[in-house]
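Contributing new complexes? Match this layout with 6-O-phosphono-alpha-D-glucopyranose.
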Amino acid sequence: MCGITGYIGYRDAFPIIINGLKRLEYRGYDSAGVVLYDGNQINLSKTKGKVSDLLKKFDSDTSKVGNLGIGHTRWATHGEPNDINSHPHTSQSGNLVLVHNGIIENYNSIKQELIGRGYSFQSDTDTEVLVNFIEEIKIQNNVKLGKAVQIALNQVVGAYAIAVFDIDKPDEIIVAKLGSPIAIGVGKDLEEFFIASDASPFIEYTRNAIYLEDGEMAIIKKRREVIVKKIDDDTNVDAKVQELQMNLGEIEKNGYEHFMLKEIHEQPRAITDTFRGRLLPEEGIIKISGLENNMKRFLNAERIIIVACGTSWHAGLVAEYIFEEFVRIPVEVEYASEFRYRNPIITERDLVIAISQSGETADTLAAIKLAKSKGAFVFGVCNVVGSSIARENDSGVYTHAGPEIGVASTKAFTTQITVLTLMALRLARAKGTMTSADYRMYLQEMERIPAKVEKVLEMDAKVEEIARKYLLSTNCLYLGRGYNFPVALEGALKLKEISYIHAEGYPAAEMKHGPIALIDDRMPVVVIATSRGHYDKVVSNIQEIKSRSGKIIAVVTEGDTVVRDIADHVIEIPDTEEALSPLLTTIPLQLLSYYIAVMRNCNVDQPRNLAKSVTVE
Ligand code: G6P
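Output block (do not edit by hand):
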């Protein structure tokens, strides 16, 4: 969590840093701050709230001059979100200024030591401790900033991406990384450099970026060079400059009111991009190179363990149904946070699939490391190219959904399911667990999915109308069976995340073991009742809700007549194979939560307390 951005060069740093922070707000938005340095004077402004609040403050009381600057948008860990705890933090002398994304776990013992040496602290943060620790080392050892950072970080326990500068050296910024991401944008002729938690803040200035690896730091010298070093042994690293593929259009709203709505509507394109070059129905081929290159590992695996968090965990649950049915291999789906701490039984014959949109989720990353240490082969399904998880896995596949900026995940979910379905189909063919006729049928049906998603999106206005009726609800129940049970969980998560209405997802049949007690005429129940999935049983569940006066919003297959007569509202989706139906049934649930949240005046793209990239455990 938290976003960092910085600039050193010949331009005004202010607009670059502010625009960068706006693009990084998905990482946290409890507070924001910027410091600018013009060679004489530091101009620092920080505030509780969003970047828009910071801008107001800047307008009224701070100069915007400086060709060097660093900025921060915060998701609070140590210390409540207030002005004082906001970053950047300065050292006691006022000479060092630092921003930090991560957690310094041993900050308290360092703090006590520094207090013993006469330091005092204004904030409750671990970051203020770190900047003073670096200063103390610099003074005691009479070394330059880079060396002091290195010595300090070798004594720090935790995770960090930092950017720090010294007012005595206005041509240099030091950055370092362990566990949290950091990218360095390299300007033309090395005249300028950009720093950011991801490349989006500098995409319009340069296409060349260096991604630091864990345990690396960089000394960035204006108009000269970037020196990358290992923090532990000071050796120089030959850092690769990568060419960025991202487009500006992908990170802007393009006329949509919110990123979430844009991303919901992007799903036909995103799913098509996930297929591209991989799904060839005419030839009867599925080709995913990460899978092909490791086919033996997959075919010899005795068990698949899926680890993930949040929405990605729900995609994992859908994959469990698909892999067990298509490939006939046992699958377990684990919350990464539980898996990593519960001493799980993992052997070399296990294959672990880690799913993560951001590729930065701390718990998922730790689960991968644990699985690897026990000899399991780890395969990653990530969206963000070059992310920590993508690099940590033994092999993997990208979803190619494009940047997802709305905090509530939408297109990441459907593209994760898409790629996992392709993998299961390919493996089913290789293992002989699916007939060739079924295999070909699935390939063709997969290819039709983007057009069918497009059709579901035509229900947008109808879903908006339904949303209006339930915007004042305080609770909501989501029910589904089989492949659509995880969709019910995901629908409930979407609603609670962005509208703050309490919602629960349940397997439809489990309703009678508890949630049915909650049903009365004020309780909306969203039921996924597609024609191929245990339809009659779900219809019975709907009857049970109706007899207790619950309000039914049903997602049904086109042409359904039975549920139409019982439900209060129906949303029709095109027919498809049951195993592929989550790709369609999810869409109206995304729209429903979106419209309810908008009508409740909630901040859809930046819901309270949440962040898109959870780099703390
Ligand atoms: C956060 C986000 C969710 C996401 C989860 C896992 O909670 O708000 O949208 O599903 O993290 O993130 P990942 O990037 O690993 O998929």
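Reviewers usually confirm one structural detail per submission. For this one: The chain has a mean pLDDT of 93.
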